[in-house]
Each structure stands twice: as C-alpha cells, then as structure tokens.
Specification:
single chain, alpha/beta, Aspartate Aminotransferase, domain 1, Aspartate Aminotransferase, domain 2, 2 domains, seven-stranded mixed beta sheet, four-stranded antiparallel beta sheet
C-alpha cells in the first residue's frame, strides 16, 4: 500500500524537473509536423488515415448533390451504420469527440456542484468536457495492467456530489465496465463512456459504445476510422438521443424553426464528413483486423526484451490496439525519452503517453495518482496506422531491439 508520505514525495520529485522535461518534449516531438517540413522517404509516422477511392467517390457525390452542410443522406446513413456497429438503437453525429462528451454530460443535466470521476491517464478533453458544464472532474487512478480507470480507485472517490463515472477505453483496451456499472447502480450514478479510442473494442463480444447510459466517439484523423474531425454519441435511450439531437442544433425544435426554449450548441457534423465516415464504416472490420494483426507482429518482434512491457488483452476483452503502446523501464538501457530520440534518428516517429491530467496546470492536485504518474513517465506509443506494413513493423522492432543491447555510458 502506497503511503500518503510516499505519494507526496513522488509528486514533489516530479514538479519542476518533470515540467521542464515536458517543455523539452514539446520542442523535440511536436504534436503535428509542420507542413513545410520535408520527410525522408523512409520516415514512418506515428499515424496516417487510411483513405481511398471510395471516400473520394462519396465526398464527390455529396458535393455534386449540393448537400454539404449538416443535412444530407450521408449523415443519417453514417449514424445508422454506427449504431448498428455498436449494437445500440441510436447514434447522434456531432462535430468532434470533445463536443460529443460535452453534449452527453449537458444532456444528462450535469452542471455546477456536480462531480464526474475521470481517469487521471487520458487525453485532457475528457476532463475539459466536464469543466465546460461547470462540474468538477475528479481523477481516479488507473489499473497497472490495462491502463484503464481502476474501479477500486473510483469507489474511494464517490461523494454525495458524484453524478457520473467517465471510463476511457485507453489506447483501445476496454475499461472494466461490469465493475463500474455495479458501482453506478449502487450509488445511482450514470456511466458516460469515453470511447474515442475504442472503436470495435469489446467485452465478452459486447462492443464499447453500448455499455454506458451514453458513449462518445471521436473520428479525428488518427482514430481507427476518421472523418477528419467529427464525433458520435451512442445510446439505447430514445429520450436522451432526442435531447442530444435538439441541443446539437441550437436547441431549435424541427417543427418550430428559429424558436429556442433554451441555450443550445452548434455541434453538427457535415454531410461531407459523414460521406467519408460511411466509406470508412464499410471497411471498419478490415481496419480492426489489421490493427490486431499489427499488434501481433509487434508482440512477436518485441517479446522478451528486458525492460519493455507489452500491452495486455485481459481475458474476455477485445483490445483493438488503437495505438500499439509499450512501457520502457529498467533494465532497458535507455529511458523512454532517450528511446524516442533514438527512434527519431532512425526516422521512426513515436509519442509519449498522455501526461496525467492531475499533473497539468489547470487540474493539478497535491495527491497525484501514482500508477498514472508512473505510466505517464514510461509509456510510449509506436506507429500504428492500419496502412503500416509488416516490413515497417519489423524495422521498428529491430531498431528497439538493437537499442536495447546498448549499455549505459558516462
């Protein structure tokens, strides 16, 4: 059991040196490459969307139809396809994954004075969406094996103000939904799935997006399927779906144009985006199969390297490995950041794990979550695009294995 004194010492240790390191990372590993920066022909990016002739055909059809905004056949078709894929009755398309989360929370009536429990290790949008409502994000630690929110940590954080639990299916592995739903039922809470990284992940064959009261997905360019930007809400609750549809369009009832009983949002998806989404949905099973195949190739190529921990797939769970992620720790001779730099010299891109949200300035606490903190320091995401070739994976694995044979010097 980690003592409070030990946690405080760990957090103190992470303060200034850690944040100096973060600033250095921003300059060494920019989130997006400048468009003007030429890439060597053998450069392997962290991710690329997998687009083809079908996407081009559908977008051109939408353009020629004249329906390029939020009305058009591709929007409703995309929603129906995605609802069917997740095994739910309703899907509501929106402008991006963050607005999906915000809209879900707002539609549920979550606001000032409420608390929503969020994993410490996730992208900041999860906490931001809570903050947009006026509620408070409370950070739970994560499971050391799956890296997803730890139900035991959640149970310790529930107060009379807690209204919701927001599990995140981190990097493609589902969160422990059965245990979280038990907690939610016991304390009369709602579960809002942040499934931005979990398209097609499942527990006992039941896909993410169909476990909580409502779920939010992202279709950003680096997601398993993409619309460039864009998001989706999924639910079996017809009233909640209708409320989300109303709120995403300025809270304007379709039968009473320009009349607004309340403040709404402009969170609509365009028909052009949905056209890309339909084309991507027609190939999603192929994408998921390729994702899992990539994970197998990585696992074979990186097995038994001292200090490299591979991602797990818990029994009964289907991990779709949105990003193939590893932990870098002793006795591997390089730190995580040194390995990133070395891979970059080999023209191989990579990304660190998300910084734990409770270490970021807007959300920093004096009691950081120790497992999230450790994983945030050690975690590394490797190239994971569906178009990644087996030869490229072999090259990445060879580079890491070769670097693992180095010895510390100086």
């Amino acid at each position: 059991m980690t003592t409070q004194k030990a946690r405080d010492a760990d957090f103190q240790d992470v303060q200034e040196p850690f944040h100096t390191m973060l600033i250095e990372q921003l300059s060494l590993f920019p989130y997006l490459e400048p468009e003007t920066a030429p890439r060597p022909p053998d450069f392997i990016p962290i991710y690329e969307p997998w687009l083809g002739a079908r996407e081009e055909k559908y977008v051109l059809d939408a353009v020629r139809s004249g329906w390029i905004s939020s009305l058009g056949k591709y929007v409703t078709r995309f929603e129906a396809m995605f609802a069917d894929f997740c095994g739910v009755d309703h899907a509501v398309s929106v402008s991006n994954g963050t607005t999906a989360l915000h809209l879900a929370l707002h539609a549920l009536g979550i606001g000032p004075g409420d608390e929503v429990i969020v994993p410490a290790l996730t992208f900041v949008a999860s906490a931001n969406a809570v903050t947009y409502t006026g509620a408070k994000a409370v950070f739970a630690d994560v499971d050391p094996a799956t890296w997803c929110i730890d139900p035991a940590s959640v149970a310790q954080l529930i107060t009379p103000r807690t209204r919701a639990i927001m599990p995140v299916h981190l990097y493609g592995h589902p969160a422990a939904m059965a245990e979280l739903l038990e907690l939610a039922e016991l304390y009369n809470l709602v579960v809002v799935e942040d499934a931005a990284e979990g398209h097609g992940a499942a527990i006992d064959g039941r896909r993410t997006g169909g476990w909580g009261r409502i779920a939010a997905f992202s279709f950003y360019a680096n997601k398993t399927i993409t619309t460039g930007e864009g998001g989706m809400l999924t639910t079996d609750d017809a009233d909640l779906a209708a409320r989300c549809r109303l709120l995403r369009d300025h809270a304007m009832p379709p039968q009473h144009r320009y009349w607004h009983d309340e403040v709404g949002f402009n969170y609509r998806m365009t028909n052009l985006q949905a056209a890309v989404g339909v084309a991507q949905m027609e190939r999603i099973e192929e994408f998921i199969e390729r994702k899992r195949s990539i994970a197998c190739c990585y696992s074979e190529g990186l097995q038994e390297i001292p200090g490299i921990t591979l991602p797990v797939e818990a029994p009964g769970y289907t991990n779709i490995y949105w990003l193939f992620s590893i932990l870098v720790e002793q006795p591997f001779p390089l730190t995580r950041d040194e390995l990133m730099r070395a891979l970059r010299n080999e023209q191989i891109d990579s990304r660190p794990f998300f910084h734990p949200i409770d270490t970021l300035p807007p959300y920093r606490t004096d009691q950081p979550c120790p497992t999230a903190l450790r994983l945030g320091r050690q975690g590394l995401n490797l190239p994971s695009a569906p178009s990644l070739s087996n030869d490229q994976i072999a090259r990445i694995c060879h580079a890491i294995r070769k670097l693992g044979e180095l010895r510390h010097h100086g």
